[in-house]
Design a protein that fits this description.
Blueprint: E1 8-9, E2 21-22, H1 27-32, E3 43-52, E4 57-58, E5 61-62, E6 66-72, E7 77-82, E8 92-101, E9 104-115, E10 141-146, E11 153-157, E12 160-162, E13 170-172, E14 175-179, E15 185-188, E16 210-215, E17 222-226, E18 243-251, E19 256-265, E20 281-290, E21 293-302, E22 307-316, E23 338-344, E24 357-365, E25 371-377, E26 387-395
Antiparallel strand pairs: 1-9, 2-3, 3-26, 4-5, 6-7, 7-8, 8-9, 10-11, 11-14, 12-13, 14-15, 16-17, 17-18, 18-19, 20-21, 21-22, 22-23, 24-25, 25-26
């Protein structure tokens, strides 16, 4: 995704509907997590939604797979990551200009694209695991964050885990790397010991690793969120039960993990079709607000029937157990982070549809002082889905 001054204006109409939701209105979720402190002052008003054309060409790339978004308050520019694993074009990010006002989501313009570069300065090639050929594993980009002090980027990859009885395992650790706005590599953070890939049933599951990535507003803390539990931390969420995944706090000055907390995932939102065991609920992004508070985006789907669920929670690590040294969350008592439901996108009047919403970021303030909240969806490069940008106005933050 390279940054050049070409613009792609999306001349699509935006809808406007007012909806105010308070954290205290989510009685069922609050009952499930009674330690959550009431936050009745936080309100979300839906402003509008815009969609990009399917498989939209832009500057030599195919736009799709948009999995995370981050706002640079210094420049007013947004950074959006694509989870294309160098299959269509090299792993990349886009820059965008998003016009939002108290009356709606006015415009979305792509303004540039850059490939992420490996330490040797090359773009990442696609994955090759054919026997007898040199093995390469492309990154699976899922999270992006702008350093508020320097304007540099941090981004995460989910890695790879392919284990079969008939071939050698393919293992690539997830990562958090730094990048310049040109895409150039600037370093890598250390993984917590439990998050390395393993051919045995320990560590991360395939495609359920580092989805959430966020710096605090002052840039002094970095947080990552695993999408779903490690093997040793228990089963994925089901319609009958939630699960615990991990949120890690890093010190950006050292690149080392400083603490880790268990985050309580909600149960799956519906019964699965007979024989379908692939769908689950997980963290698709988080937004660090500072003082141990977060907006957490949980996303779930029954892909076979294109049934998507996206919910935003207010979470806190106050009083949560530091589990950084715990190999398993099933051994000994663990006090997880607290959370309260702020909004279920399925309940938003006027929102045309809920797709695979994977990213969120706080944008600029409106003239009345409220913050804007921008969400983005990942269409999986599928004609059955859409790339959508969704805007809210947020008061109480």
């Amino acid at each position: 995704m390279p940054a050049r001054p070409r613009l792609a204006l999306l001349p699509l109409t935006a809808t406007l509907t007012c909806l105010a939701v308070t954290a205290g209105s989510a009685a069922a979720e609050t009952a499930a997590h009674p330690s959550a402190a009431p936050q009745r002052g936080i309100r979300l008003q839906y402003l509008g939604e815009r969609e990009l054309p399917n498989a939209m060409p832009y500057d030599g790339t195919t736009v799709g797979g948009l999995s995370a978004i981050s706002y640079d308050a210094r420049t007013g520019q947004y950074y959006v990551i694509s989870d294309d694993r160098s299959q269509r074009n090299p792993a990349r990010f886009y820059t965008a200009s998003i016009g939002v006002s108290a009356t709606g989501l006015d415009s979305v313009q792509l303004t540039g694209t850059h490939p992420f570069l490996a330490p040797d300065g090359s773009a990442y090639p696609p994955t090759v695991t054919t026997p007898g050929q040199p093995q390469t594993v492309a990154p699976d980009p899922e999270g992006i964050a702008v350093d508020p002090a320097t304007g540099g980027l941090l981004w995460s990859s989910e890695g790879e885990r392919i284990v079969s009885a008939t071939a050698a395992p393919v293992l690539e650790d997830p990562w958090v790397q730094g990048a310049a706005t040109s895409g150039a590599y600037t370093g890598r953070y250390a993984l917590p010991p439990q998050e390395h890939m393993n051919a045995q049933a320990v560590g991360p599951r395939q495609n359920q690793t580092l989805e959430g990535l966020s710096l605090t507003p002052d840039g002094r803390e970095l947080y990552t969120a695993m999408e779903d539990p490690l093997f040793q931390d228990g089963a994925d969420p089901t319609p009958a039960a939630g699960a615990l995944t991990r949120v890690t706090r890093y010190d950006p000055r050292t690149g080392l993990p400083a603490a880790q907390y268990a985050y309580p995932l909600s149960p799956f939102f519906t019964e699965l079709p007979a024989g379908d065991t692939t769908d689950t609920n997980g963290v698709s992004d988080l937004l660090a607000l500072g003082d141990g508070r977060f907006l957490v985006l949980e996303r779930a789907s029954v892909y076979a029937r294109q049934d998507w669920k996206a919910r935003i929670y207010l979470a806190s690590d106050a009083g949560a157990t530091d589990v950084l040294s715990r190999d398993s969350l099933t051994e000994g008592a663990v006090r997880p982070m607290s959370k309260q439901l702020l909004i279920d996108l399925s309940d938003v009047p006027g929102l045309p549809r809920v797709d695979n919403v994977e990213g969120l970021t706080l944008g600029p303030r409106l003239p009345d002082g409220r913050r804007t909240l921008i969400l983005v969806s990942d269409d999986n490069f599928s004609a059955l889905q859409v790339t959508q940008f969704i805007a809210f106005a947020v008061s109480g933050l």
